[in-house]
Amino acid sequence: MTPPSTSSTFLPLVTAVAAVIAGVGAVAAAVRTRGSTAVPAAWWAVAACSALAVDAWARWSGAVTQPATAGCVRLCVAALAVCPAMSLLGAKRPQHGVWQLIVATLAAVVALPAASAWLVRPGSMPDAHLLGRGFLLVLTIVGWLNFVATGHGLSATAIAAGQLAVVRPFLPGVDTAGALPQPLLDAAGAVLIAAGATAVWLRGAMARRPRVSAPTVAATIDRPFLVLRDTLGAAWALRIAERFDTVATERGWPCRLHFTGLDVGGDPTDATWHRDALRAFRALMRRFVDDAWLLRHGWPETDEPAMAPSAEGL
Fold first, then answer.
1. CA–CA separation, 70 vs 58, rounded Å?
2. What is the rounded CA–CA span in Å between residue 228 and residue 222?
3. Residue 289 pairs with which residues in a beta bridge?
4. What share of the chain is helix, strand, coil (3-state, %, to 5)?
5. Fewer CB within 10 Å of terminal CB in the chain, N or C?
6. What mean pLDDT comes out for the span 160-189?
7. In the chain, at which residue ranges do the beta strands (DSSP E only) sit?
8. Alpha-carbon distance 300 to 308, whole Å?
9. d(Cα 115, Cα 108) in Å, to the nearest integer?
């Protein structure tokens, strides 16, 4: 089919290209986070970007011209858009794999009105339930809050704003039929998402493994902890810090793990507790990453066991 020659077709093309760029960034994120429980979230992001690209290409090529069909496609895009944030909420071993079934179920429930309109009421706009609309808004905000205080705060803000622009027709209080089409808002949202994904990739590409001749316990812990914080978000980082501080209090270690890293007090020459602290921290991290991931992020090679009884129950 020959694409229409009107100037309005330029914006859907911009949306499609930006979505592809964001998808490439999500693939790069999946590769960079290999060995961690964040990988499924990255692949959900790839699926969401691919759906948006297909949606925009279909409008640009003229394959989708009916408002009802466009609404069904956009609802499927919106359902996939919240899957990465939902996936990270369950990113803890060993249940992180089964959690992806819950994420897929949520996406299917949100997209169900599209299937109903397509199969039962052909030609009608999907009637998204208020609960599903609420999920789109709440999960987008939750995803933003999870990263706004991390090293990816600006990227998270750009991605959340772009996502809200793209899914706007199915947000609470919005008339879907009147909101579609929205070529300018779609293009702006896709560009914001692509910019955020590119910024995340650039920050990761520029990060270098620090060279420490005589690593301290704080330096050994800070590197993987801060990377995990920026990978999984604030929620799991704070949970790890809470569990580590509980163990530190029970054993009398003069240290506390904060959102910004390990704070060591007491006698600086007292290293009697360092070995146990490193083992406890590693045990907590193993709920989210494997040994290869730890080695890539500055953890020293060691034959110490990966589990510590006091770290159970995260």
1. 9
2. 10
3. 36
4. 70, 5, 30
5. N
6. 92
7. 255-258, 261-264
8. 18
9. 9
In the block, tokens 């070529």 appear at: 183
Question: What are the start-end ranges of the H helices in 90-182?
Answer: 96-119, 130-147, 153-167, 176-179
Region 7-206: CATH code: 1.20.1070
Residue type, 27: V
| 46-76 tens-digit pLDDT | 999 999 999 999 988 888 878 888 889 999 9
As a whole number of angstroms, the distance between CA 308 and CA 144 comes to 33
3-state SS of 273-296 is: CHHHHHHHHHHHHCCCECHHHHHH
Nearest residue to 245 (alpha-carbon basis) of 233, 260, 263, 231: 263
Task: List Cα–Cα distances, 198 to 110, 182, 185, 311, in angstroms.
Answer: 28, 24, 20, 36
DSSP secondary-structure letter at 36? B
Q: How far, CA to CA in Å, does 289 sit from each of 3, 36, 128, 283? A: 47, 4, 38, 10
- What pLDDT is attached to residue 257? 95
CB distance 59 to 52 below 8 Å: no
Q: What is the pLDDT of residue 204?
A: 77
Calpha distance 160→181 (Å, rounded): 20
Gap between the Cα atoms of 49 and 22, Å rounded:
6
- CB atoms under 10 Å from CB of 238, counted, come to 15
- The CA distance from 22 to 3, in Å, is 24
In whole angstroms, what is the distance from residue 54 CA to residue 35 CA? Answer: 30
Helix H or strand E encompassing 35:
none
d(C-alpha 49, C-alpha 47), whole Å: 6
**Is residue 26 within 8 Å of 49, Cβ to Cβ?**
yes
